[in-house]
Specification:
With 91 residues, the protein is an all-alpha fold. It has three helices and no strands.
Length: 91
């Protein structure tokens, strides 16, 4: 009986921690979703928000590095092309 109470207490704490972490991750994503809804003047889902963020990060990785090897630039360019194609599919 006592072991069950300890297990239930641990499960409850773990569940609480997971919920807090999940909320901490979702909150900024919800803010970005609201921003994109206002900027695009149309409904945007969380998935579409993640696709847009991916495209923006790929763009920054392609444009910002001033001096880096050609291979890194080509990888960033491939990432950008892939991200833009995903944006076209999702939006």
């Amino acid at each position: 009986m006592n072991n069950e109470m300890i297990l239930n207490s641990r499960e409850t704490r773990l569940y609480t921690v997971v919920n807090l972490l999940s909320a901490a991750v979702r909150r900024p994503l919800d803010w970005l979703t609201l921003y994109y809804i206002r900027a695009l003047a149309r409904p945007v889902s969380r998935r579409q928000t993640l696709v847009l963020v991916n495209a923006q990060l790929a763009f920054l990785a392609t444009v910002l590095p001033a001096e880096c090897p050609v291979v890194v630039r080509l990888l960033a360019l491939a990432w950008l092309v892939s991200a833009v194609l995903k944006c076209r599919e999702e939006l």
